[in-house]
C-alpha cells in the first residue's frame, strides 16, 4: 500500500489501519512510517463496552451449547449464517429425532452401515445447505447405541469411524419455497426391524417427518401415513383395522396414569391393517406395555424414546 499512487498523490487523503498482512508489521515498514497513514495495534474489542459485549456473547453461546442449541460461531463446525441457522432450527430438531426413531426400530440396535436421507424441498438444491441436518441425523442414530457424544464438529468423522455411510438425495417438490424443507425421510438398509411395519416396499426401515407450526411431526412409518408430534415418547402399534381400538389402548394408558399427548391412525386399505401412533408424556411400565400387547387385535407394537 505504501507504493500506492493514490495514497502518494493524496487522492486517498488519509488511511487508518489496525490489521496488517504481517503482524506485527516490520519496524522499517514504509506503510507504518508514511505521513498520511495512521496505524494502531489490533484493537478489535479493546474498549470497555466492547469487552463487555464480547463477554455477554460468549456467556450466551456457552449457555446455548449446554442446552444443546446450535451455534453459528462454533469452531470447525459447518459455517452457516445466523439467519439460516434460525430458519433451520426446527428442522434440525426433526432430523435428530428421526435418526433417533429410526435406530430404535433396528432389531438389536446395531450393525447399521448404510443410511439414506431424502430431503424434499421446493428450493433449488444450491439454496439448501444440509450439512447441519446430516450431522443431527448422525447424532440421532449413533448416540442411542454408543457412548459417543456427537456434535456438529465430529459427526462426519465419528460416522466414518463406526463404518456408517450416509448418503443424501434431494427431491424437488411443488410446495412453498418459503420453507427450506418440505419433509425429511431416513432409511436404514440391510438390517432387521423390531417393528415389521416400519419396512418400506424396498425392505428398508423408513421413517419420514415434517415441521408443522414449528413442531417436528412424524408423518410416515414404512408404507403407513401417520401424523403425530415428536415430543415425549412414542408407541407404535400395528393392529387389525376395526372399531374400538383407539378406545381400548387409550383406556389402558389412562388407567395407568400415562397421559396421551397425540394419537394418529394410518392405514393402507380399509378394514385390513392399520398403524396407531400414540404420543405419551410418560414412559409406560412393563406391565402397561404387556397389557397393550395382549389386546387381541394388536399384531405388533414398539415403545420408542424421543
TrEMBL record:
Residue span, ACT domain: 234-306
Keywords in alphabetical order: Chloroplast, Plastid, Transit peptide
GO (cellular component) term, any one: chloroplast
SUPFAM superfamilies xrefs: ACT-like, NAD(P)-binding Rossmann-fold domains, Serine metabolism enzymes domain
UniProt enzyme class: oxidoreductase
Location in the cell: Plastid, Chloroplast
Name the UniProt record assigns to this protein: phosphoglycerate dehydrogenase
Protein species of origin: Ilex paraguariensis (yerba mate)
Amino acid at each position: 500500500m505504501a507504493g500506492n499512487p493514490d495514497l502518494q498523490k493524496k487522492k486517498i487523503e488519509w488511511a487508518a489501519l489496525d490489521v496488517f498482512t504481517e503482524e506485527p508489521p516490520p519496524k522499517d515498514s514504509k506503510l507504518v512510517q508514511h505521513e498520511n497513514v495512521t496505524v494502531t495495534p489490533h484493537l478489535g474489542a479493546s474498549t470497555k463496552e466492547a469487552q463487555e459485549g464480547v463477554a455477554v456473547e460468549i456467556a450466551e453461546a456457552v449457555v446455548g451449547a449446554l442446552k444443546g442449541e446450535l451455534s453459528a460461531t462454533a469452531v470447525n463446525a459447518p459455517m452457516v449464517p445466523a439467519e439460516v441457522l434460525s430458519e433451520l432450527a426446527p428442522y434440525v430438531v426433526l432430523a435428530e429425532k428421526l435418526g433417533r426413531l429410526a435406530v430404535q426400530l433396528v432389531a438389536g440396535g446395531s450393525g447399521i452401515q448404510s443410511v439414506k436421507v431424502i430431503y424434499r424441498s421446493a428450493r433449488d438444491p444450491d439454496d439448501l445447505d444440509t450439512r447441519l441436518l446430516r450431522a443431527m441425523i448422525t447424532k440421532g442414530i449413533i448416540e442411542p447405541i454408543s457412548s459417543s457424544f456427537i456434535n456438529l464438529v465430529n459427526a462426519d468423522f465419528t460416522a466414518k469411524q463406526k463404518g456408517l455411510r450416509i448418503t443424501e438425495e434431494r427431491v424437488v417438490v411443488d410446495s412453498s419455497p418459503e420453507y427450506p424443507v418440505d419433509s425429511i425421510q431416513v432409511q436404514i438398509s440391510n438390517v432387521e426391524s423390531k417393528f415389521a411395519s416400519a419396512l418400506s416396499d424396498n425392505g428398508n426401515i423408513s421413517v419420514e417427518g415434517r415441521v408443522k407450526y414449528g413442531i417436528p411431526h412424524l408423518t410416515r412409518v414404512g408404507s403407513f401415513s401417520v401424523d403425530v408430534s415428536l415430543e415425549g415418547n412414542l408407541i407404535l402399534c400395528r393392529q387389525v383395522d376395526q372399531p374400538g381400538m383407539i378406545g381400548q389402548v387409550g383406556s389402558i394408558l389412562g388407567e395407568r396414569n400415562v397421559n396421551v399427548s397425540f394419537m394418529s391412525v394410518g392405514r393402507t386399505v380399509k378394514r385390513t391393517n392399520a398403524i396407531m401412533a400414540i404420543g405419551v408424556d410418560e414412559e409406560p411400565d412393563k406391565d402397561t406395555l404387556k397389557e397393550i400387547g395382549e389386546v387381541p387385535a394388536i399384531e405388533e407394537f414398539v415403545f420408542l424414546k424421543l
